[in-house]
Amino acid sequence: MYPVERHRWIIETARAQGRLEVPEIAGQLGVAVETVRRDLNVLERRGLIRRVHGGAIPVEKLGFESTLLARGSSHPEAKARIAQAALEYTDEVESIFIDEGSTAAAYAAQLRPNRPVLVVTSSLPVASQLAVRPHLDVVILGGRVRPNTLGAVDHWATDMLSRLVLDLAVVGTNGATGKHGLTCPDSSVAAVKSAAVRASRRTLLIADESKFGVDSSIKFADLHDLDAVVTEKTVPESHLQPFRRLGVQITQV
């Protein structure tokens, strides 16, 4: 396989799966790990992928957004750890907004309070999962449903959020940097996330390593809008320093 063919495969597969690991690429292409690393360096210099610990992700600013199924299959163990740690921030809350996305879905999967809690969500999968659980009163936002994520968007969703006062917003992101804050590739999703942050007394960001140091195209929150972040231990400290300087509490698992 020629280098240009390897590069095309890496880019297309990263966009389909959301993330690729170096050993996986080497095994699929039948080349040495050192060759894969050189290929990834070339693609990163061209602005086509972003290197992360042990692999690569597509550059979100290109406007690419993977499906919920593809994102859910990427780093499920890390997302489960993040979700478990995030529960510590919800011990005393009476009302929660839960975002769309795979990490938010992992959080919802572990949410089993022993007291009444109101859950507001833009995610159909989250709503259907939580509606049958004891102690949870689930409200799903109205609006157009996006096929990639099964999340509700547009003015119906933001109008509903504008009428609510919630204790905590649990949100995900496609990108998080000190310069541009929290970003995602879809303006309708960004509007719902922004409305949820405004409607909530506190905001908790849950995101895996791949989201830090990456910018997408639409900003939905500043770092100072956050109260806490739960992420992986592998996130470089340089990416977390802008959060720490603003007093954002950070938990790494």
Automatic annotation (TrEMBL):
Residues 3-58 form the HTH deoR-type domain. GO terms for molecular function: DNA binding; DNA-binding transcription factor activity. The keyword Repressor applies. InterPro entries: Carb_Metab_HTH_regulators (IPR050313), DeoR-like_C (IPR014036), DeoR_HTH (IPR001034), NagB/RpiA_transferase-like (IPR037171), WH-like_DNA-bd_sf (IPR036388), WH_DNA-bd_sf (IPR036390). Keywords: DNA-binding, Repressor, Transcription, Transcription regulation. Signal peptide: none annotated. PANTHER family: GLYCEROL-3-PHOSPHATE REGULON REPRESSOR (PTHR30363:SF4), HTH-TYPE TRANSCRIPTIONAL REGULATOR SRLR-RELATED (PTHR30363). Repressor of the lactose catabolism operon. Galactose-6-phosphate is the inducer. This is Lactose phosphotransferase system repressor. It comes from Arthrobacter woluwensis.
